[in-house]
Design brief:
This protein has about 350 residues and is an alpha/beta fold. The chain is about 45% helix and about 10% strand. It has 16 helices and 8 strands. The protein has a 6-stranded mixed sheet, with helices on both faces. A two-stranded antiparallel ribbon has the order 3-4. Helix 6 crosses helix 13. The radius of gyration is 23 Å and the shape is globular. The N terminus is likely disordered.
Length: about 350
C-alpha cells in the first residue's frame, strides 16, 4: 500500500473511526461522553435522508477533533438493508439493547406502511418507555405511529406521505414543517430536512458556532428553523404573486375530498368564473377543472402506493364521485389502471 493507504487503513490510533481528519477547525471545550445515535434502517429507506442524518455528526467530530458523536446502524435481523435506490448498507446488529444515552431513529422511505415491522414498532416503544429520545426520518413517523407513541405529540414526515398517513391514522395530524422536535419525539421530512434537524441538535448541545461550522461544511447557506414548510408555496411553484390565484389553489388543495364548484369558489374569493379561468390559463397553463383532476389523481396514486385502501375507497377519498371515472382518468394520466398500479407496488423485499 501507498503511504496514504497506510494512513487511511492503519490503526485506530492514526484515524479513529468517528473522528476523521480535516482542515477546517472549530475549537470547543467538551469532556462529555459521546452522544450515540442508533439508526434503524427499514427496507426501501431513503439513502438521501440517511446520509443527511449521519454526515453532520461526522463533520461535527471532524471539525472539533473530538468524538462528540458515535452512530450505529441497526436492522430488524442484523443483516444489510437495501435502500430505495438499490444500494445496501451493512448493519451493526439487530434490535437489541442500545447505550443508555442513545437517540434511536427509524429511517424509512417508500412503502412505509408495508415495510415497518411489528418488531421495530415494539423496539421503539420499549426505548421510549425507558426514557430514550426516539424519532422518525423521512416517513419514519409510520414506525412511531405503529409503536403507539405519537398521540399528544407534534410530528412530521415527508410531505408526499402526509395525506396517505392521515387516511390510515385517524386522530394523528402531522405538521408540514421540515422537522419537529417535541420533547422526546424527533421527526423530519427526510432529504435536506434531516440535516436541518441534526444541525438543530448540534446547536442545542454545542452552540451556534459549531452548528454554523457544520452547515458551512455541508454548503448550507443558513440554518433553517423548524417552522419552515416542506413544500414551496404556490407563489414559487407557479411563479406568481397573484394572491387570488394562490388562495384559490390553497382552497382546492385543502378541499380535494369535497365537491368543488368553480362558480362557488370564484364567488368565495370575490372574482368571476371567467377571471379564474384566465388566471389558471396565464399562470398554471391548464384549466382549473383539469388542475383539480390532476391533483386528485396524484393524491389517489399516493393512497394506492402507501395505504391498504381499496381502489373504490381511494377514488372517493381523492374526491371522485365514481370509481369508474377515477379509473378512466388514472389510466389516461399514468398509462396503467389503478388496480394494476396497486398490484405492482412492492417494497422489493
Amino acid at each position: 500500500m501507498s503511504g496514504l493507504d497506510d494512513e487511511i487503513h492503519g490503526s485506530d490510533d492514526l484515524v479513529p473511526r468517528f473522528v476523521p481528519r480535516g482542515i477546517a477547525h472549530v475549537d470547543i471545550e467538551s469532556d462529555q461522553p459521546p452522544q450515540v445515535f442508533v439508526i434503524v434502517l427499514v427496507p426501501s429507506f431513503s439513502m438521501l435522508a440517511f446520509a443527511n442524518t449521519v454526515e453532520p455528526l461526522r463533520i461535527a467530530n471532524q471539525l472539533t477533533g473530538k468524538q462528540l458523536y458515535r452512530w450505529e446502524v441497526r436492522s430488524d435481523d442484523g443483516l444489510p438493508v437495501v435502500s430505495a435506490n438499490g444500494l445496501s448498507i451493512s448493519s451493526d446488529g439487530g434490535l437489541s439493547e442500545v447505550p443508555a444515552n442513545a437517540v434511536v431513529l427509524a429511517c424509512v422511505g417508500n412503502y412505509a406502511e408495508k415495510t415497518v415491522s411489528g418488531d421495530l414498532a415494539g423496539f421503539l416503544r420499549e426505548k421510549w418507555r425507558k426514557g430514550h429520545r426516539v424519532g422518525g426520518i423521512c416517513t419514519g413517523a409510520y414506525a412511531l405511529a405503529k409503536a403507539g407513541i405519537l398521540k399528544g405529540h407534534a410530528f412530521t414526515l415527508h410531505w408526499e406521505s402526509i395525506k396517505p398517513f392521515c387516511e390510515e391514522h385517524e386522530g394523528l395530524e402531522p405538521s408540514d414543517s421540515i422537522y419537529v422536535m417535541d420533547r422526546r419525539i424527533l421527526t423530519c421530512g427526510g432529504g435536506a430536512a434531516s440535516t436541518d434537524m441534526m444541525l438543530a441538535l448540534i446547536r442545542d448541545s454545542f452552540g451556534d458556532e459549531l452548528a454554523r461550522g457544520v452547515a458551512d461544511m455541508c454548503l448550507y447557506a443558513s440554518l433553517r428553523s423548524s417552522d419552515q414548510r416542506q413544500k414551496a408555496p404556490a407563489s414559487t411553484l407557479y411563479g406568481t404573486r397573484n394572491q387570488v390565484l394562490i388562495k384559490i389553489i390553497d382552497y382546492i388543495e385543502t378541499h380535494l375530498a369535497e365537491a368543488i364548484d368553480m362558480e362557488e369558489v370564484a364567488q368565495l374569493h370575490g372574482v368571476s368564473r371567467r377571471q379564474v379561468e384566465r388566471l389558471f390559463a396565464t399562470h398554471v397553463g391548464i384549466p382549473p377543472n383539469r388542475f383539480i383532476n390532476n391533483i386528485r389523481l396524484d393524491h389517489g396514486r399516493s393512497l394506492l402506493a402507501d395505504t391498504s385502501m381499496k381502489v373504490t375507497d381511494v377514488a372517493f377519498a381523492a374526491g371522485f364521485t365514481s370509481a369508474n371515472h377515477f379509473a378512466r382518468l388514472f389510466r389516461q394520466r399514468f398509462g396503467v389502471s389503478p388496480h394494476r398500479f396497486k398490484g405492482s407496488v412492492s417494497p422489493g423485499v
